[in-house]
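=== Structural record ===
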Amino acid sequence: MSGVVKHLGKLIGRSGSQQSEQHRSDSPEPSSRMSSISAPMEVEAAPVPRVAAEPSQDKSIQGKVVPPSFLCPVSMEVMVDPVILATGHTYDRSSIERWLEQGHKTCPVTGMRLRHLELTPNFALRSAIQDWAQANSVELPKPEPRPAVQPVFKWDEDRAGNILHGHEEIIWAVEVRGNMLFTASADKTVRVWDINSKRCVQVLEDHTRPVLSLAVAGDKLFSGSYDYTIRVWSLDSLQRVKTLTGHTDAVRTLAVAGNKLFSGSYDGTVKVWDTETLECIATLSGHTGPVRTLVRCGDKIFSGSYDKTVRVWDANSLRCLATLVGHTGAVRALAASDRVVFSGSDDTTIKAWDVATLQCLKTLEGHEDNVRVLAVGRGYLFSGSWDKTVRVWSAETLECIKVLEGHNEAVLALAVGDTFLVSGSYDTTVRFWDLATWRCVRKCDGHEDAVRVLAAADGKVFSGAYDGAIGVW
């Protein structure tokens, strides 16, 4: 018995450390690399009273002295469902949940502000408490009943994945339009698939280097390539209509706003094209590094760059409204809700920007490595990182409400469905997460290499991977 108590200090609050692994190459990317290691986060102490980490006097239950380590620092009662808070301290679940429900965002013992609100069961301590109670003939209190959350998303076995072959190299982009799926590859082609029959109905061959980006506007498909051009294809005939030239480096990202197509390039510019006349309207300059990502929010276009900034452009006048600074690493990802634009960076953080004022509302911290991908949907922001996790943030409060763990390599792709989130990883798997319970309801195998891109439409999910295959789930 004494041996159990003696080693409790080693059991309480123990959290597994994650070892960083060497990142696999994700070319094509600019040769310059930003550091993915951020300075240690300064933890702000909140002005709330702290509780004692250990009780000041012995606590007894049924005449037996309870080891201090078995007592919840909040209630000073023996813990029946011990859970670990983000700071590593252990509390009884009912007590810490009440603390958090009262609006506190801090650790009761240390006063430190919490990086997330996830509670991790401390199974080792629970087992030790139960062993002590049994050895001393002590009857422990019953845990407070918790209402069971029923999953909303249930995996249907009819959803069993289909792997479509045809491309010979990495899939860089996927786009869905009605019953057609478009896939862009490093093999220099764009393939058109009939979603119902899951057959390739056309191969669009005209680019001379890898195809990196896709966008649909009206009756046209646009494809951007490492050959510095944008090809325009008719959705009716699936024939090339025109080639748009002017960029002097890879066309990495495309976005549509009304009758305008915006193209972001590694040449550091954003070009604007009329989707009807297919003429270049303007070249938006200002970035000092490659433009990696674009997102539209209302009447504004946001461009994220390896120069660590986000630039904001008026989609009508095409004026630069602001340069958003603050990131210390390349900006790789952008996503937008109705009122907020989020930027994810190699500096491990996400910044939330007010679309109206263009002020930074908050810096979201918690990831331990590059933020690779962002997605917004169902009132949440989702972020995928090289640290192998997906974080779930409230789009309203900007607080982290859950950390989804399961992938064993970097998370590269995210897509949001009606009742589920789907994530793709370097570990070659696609995972489905129920939005009601945050549980992984399915891990899908089938790809033979990293899953690079995802899209969700009409209940289906489409994945593109480094093996050149397309998954339909």
Q: What stands out?
A: The first strand starts at residue 59 and ends at 61. Confidence is low (pLDDT under 50) at residues 1-26, 31-56. The two ends are 52 Å apart (CA to CA).
